[in-house]
């Protein structure tokens, strides 16, 4: 039986509560003889700062580098609002993304039938929705230099951020999107603002080249990012895979997330370049934060975290059937009417984090 080493970073707030539920699901998969998982635990964010004054220690960075996959819950909270900027909780997350070279952020927006009412859009627009947003994560305006605020002689200030992309950065993210599309609906929508930005002109050119050279079998369309934002709320089911840069990806994936109802439902994956054996560095995390308002109450929704583990099975370990069964177990439990407080809607009662985890683990056990 294959064995995988998972570096688990529960982080802050509801992190430890939701990661505990992942271990239950992993136990069911090992019990069925599909794979073994070794969980090694570390500290990131505020909890790491409290333990050793850093947002992540060198020893934990080394463990993250050595693991088959990193599974992180969330970092941050008001307790660490005043710690120095370099060691703020988010610095641990950014260091992991940067040092592991995680340039491709995959954010599925999946609307479970049973939850279509929880969306801010009409049921018929979102029911059965299944979009994958592929966001470039290590380049663009968040990292480009110069990035500064300077004082002008007239007493005013001047702020500059720099949007910069090189060919190789666009080629590799486009390849991830095309590969992904081949395993789904075979369609990629590439998005930028080539009408007003030079980086958009290059983006469109390079994506078109990659398509022509290596993926002519996949349907490709280009859409300006503002138009795409509008189409996402007008008729979201027209999309399969969307590929876009760091800034637009940040915005558009948050819009897409609201189509599905609750932050507590959404997993994500961040992938690095493939090595000679085809293996990629990877980190899996829910889209939501540490939810300090509900931390310690045992009411957080563990589905985004369990879904993130499912993505690790799919994209790092090749356990496609087990990943499909986790999604089915989640869907079955929701269809049976089980709800945590965040997705309760008009239901009269809701269950705890651990009851939801137990129900998903049991549904999975039955299916295996
Ligand atoms: P948040 O995602 O933590 O919470 C937003 C709202 O959604 C809250 O009402 C929260 O209770 C609810 N929520 C989130 N996840 C939930 C879940 N699994 N189940 C039920 N309800 C859930 O975002 P925020 O309040 O803006 O930020 C709180 C802290 O988290 C801040 O310190 C922020 O910096 C940090 N944060 C971290 C990450 C990350 O680690 N990737 C992402 C976003 C925010």
Automatic annotation (TrEMBL):
Site (Important for catalysis): 142, 193
Keyword Ligase set for record: no
GO BP annotation list: L-leucine biosynthetic process
Binding sites annotated in the UniProt record for NAD(+): 77-90, 289-301
Annotated catalysed reactions: (2R,3S)-3-isopropylmalate + NAD(+) = 4-methyl-2-oxopentanoate + CO2 + NADH
Coiled coil (UniProt feature): none
Binding site for Mg(2+): 226, 250, 254
Superkingdom in the source lineage: Bacteria
Keywords, in A-Z order: Amino-acid biosynthesis, Branched-chain amino acid biosynthesis, Cytoplasm, Leucine biosynthesis, Magnesium, Manganese, Metal-binding, NAD, Oxidoreductase
Residue ranges of every copy of the Isopropylmalate dehydrogenase-like domain listed in the record: 5-360
A cellular component term, taken from the record's GO annotations: cytosol
EC id: 1.1.1.85
InterPro entries for the chain: IsoCit/isopropylmalate_DH_CS, IsoPropMal-DH-like_dom, Isopropylmalate_DH
Function in brief: Catalyzes the oxidation of 3-carboxy-2-hydroxy-4-methylpentanoate (3-isopropylmalate) to 3-carboxy-4-methyl-2-oxopentanoate. The product decarboxylates to 4-methyl-2 oxopentanoate.
Family note: Belongs to the isocitrate and isopropylmalate dehydrogenases family. LeuB type 1 subfamily.
The protein, known as: 3-isopropylmalate dehydrogenase
Organism: Rhodoblastus sphagnicola
